[in-house]
Amino acid sequence: MNRADLEKIRPVPSVVWLLIAYSLTLAGLKFWMSSLTASEAIESDGWNNFADSVYAILLAFGLYIASRPADASHPHGHRRFESMIGLGVGFIIIGTGVYILVECRKRYLAPTSLVLNGWVIAGIGALMLSKFWMAGLCRRAGESGRRPVLTAIGNDQRMDVMATFSAMAGYGSGVWWSPKLDAMFAGVISIWVFKVGVDTAWEHVHQLTGRSAPPEILHAITRAVDESPVLFGMNDLRTHHVGPEFEVSLNVFAWKSLTLEAVHSAEEDLKEKIGRIPRIAAVFIHVEPHESSGGKKGLGETEK
């Protein structure tokens, strides 16, 4: 994706609005189920879903700001606003995890009897299955729209199934064995929420501080240069985060005997090829002339 493509980033995808409504619905249903059963584990999972809705609401705001085109004050675009919002969301999720853990401690020290409700167990099972559906929607939206953050949310939605399973296990063990087990499983969910918050915050810290691209992207760039029939000798490869994606700059050589048109065409082809690598936002290539002859030759090489 080149600079012009950055200026065409879509506003908030529809899947984000669906995720907000979905997460709020799940949170409301689980709070209601918790009131019917007195289960701290189910309530904790409800808070987990509420944290998801807060994440999605702030993400929608961040994506809207990030979709604004580059201007004089932000020549590289506004993608970093998306990362700033993500960092704030990470701290909110961490706070949610701490709150859940505090409430679990209170319930563990003063346990209350749980109420068995078969419909609640069936409902939690259905909500677990719905998580797979939402995870698939987010992942497909992220891959088709080149939105890594949506792909990450899809992965998180799939992993949330484990949190909901813990809620079901906590409720069941609390009913049939000891109410303290319900509080203990709720504590497991709080640790899970806390971990998601830390991972989210840490990833967005990397984005804001311009961390380099991972090895698989660097290897893909190297392969693209090696496959060029004209350009060679890549050096000074630099990548850094611009929001959730990367900008790439590199130097390559071309034979001095080649025509300007041939070198320019090869450079544009290489830019396009590197730009198709997932998570690449912009590519900048500097071509230097090479005195020697031989090796790679383009169609535009002049005869001496």
Low-pLDDT stretches are 1-11, 297-304
Helix content: 55-70%
CATH topology of the largest domain: Alpha-lytic protease prodomain-like
Sequence of strands across the biggest β-sheet? 1-2-3
CATH class of the largest domain: Mainly Alpha
Rg, please? 25 Å
Sheet bearing the most strands, described?
3 strands, mixed
Helix and strand sequence: HHHHHHHHEEHE
Distance between the termini: 38 Å
Count of separate structural domains: 2
What structural category characterises the helix and strand content? mainly alpha
What percentage of amino acids are in beta strands?
A: 5-15%
Number of helices: 9
Per DSSP E runs of 2 or more residues, the count of β-strands stands at 3
CATH architecture of the largest domain, by name, is Up-down Bundle
Q: What would you call the shape?
A: elongated
Report the mean per-residue pLDDT as an integer: 78
Can you lay out the helices and strands and say which pair or pack?
Layout: H1 3-6, H2 14-37, H3 40-66, H4 79-109, H5 118-144, H6 148-176, H7 179-208, H8 215-226, E1 232-242, E2 245-255, H9 260-275, E3 280-290
Parallel strand pairs: 2-3
Antiparallel strand pairs: 1-2
